[in-house]
């Protein structure tokens, strides 16, 4: 099984477990004289089995990621870098948006002459340029991660 297939299987298992959790909660109690739509105890057993499968799959994915070489480090290193790049991009883009003001009407935006003018406290163009550079780096890293996901087998 390729790493990418294992990641898809993990996502499917996580969705299934969440659905089971909801179904268990929906059927954990019922009114006197009525029967629950589903057997909550059987759903718990099914959820427990799915959770065991998920634990094993996550273990194998993590083992693969820690072994797999990607660039100067491991896949685990690349995933950590990707997560931080995503956060960095959001911080830079949000800072640029906040500094540019609502409506994007320029550095001295005001609605009425009686309002005080507001000025950006941060260099908007520079922040946007940095955000674009981070986004480019993120896309390139993500492409390398995706390629590795589809070309490498999952550890046993």
Report on this model:
The chain has two domains: 1-67; 71-149. Strand 1 (69-70) and strand 2 (73-74) form a beta hairpin. The longest helix has 28 residues, at 40-67. The chain is mostly helical and 156 residues long. The relative contact order is 0.15. The chain contains four helices and two strands; from the N terminus they run ααββαα. It has a two-stranded antiparallel ribbon with strand order 1-2. Helix 1 (3-27) runs antiparallel to helix 2 (40-67), helix 1 crosses helix 4 (124-151) and helix 3 packs antiparallel against helix 4 (124-151).
Give the topology, please.
Elements: H1 3-27, H2 40-67, E1 69-70, E2 73-74, H3 75-100, H4 124-151
Antiparallel strand pairs: 1-2
Helix pairs in contact: 1-2, 1-4, 3-4
SSE pattern, N- to C-terminal: HHEEHH
Radius of gyration over alpha carbons?
Answer: 25 Å
SS summary, helix count? 4
Termini, distance in Å? Answer: 10 Å
Low-confidence stretches: 103-107
Mean pLDDT: 93
Bulk shape: flat
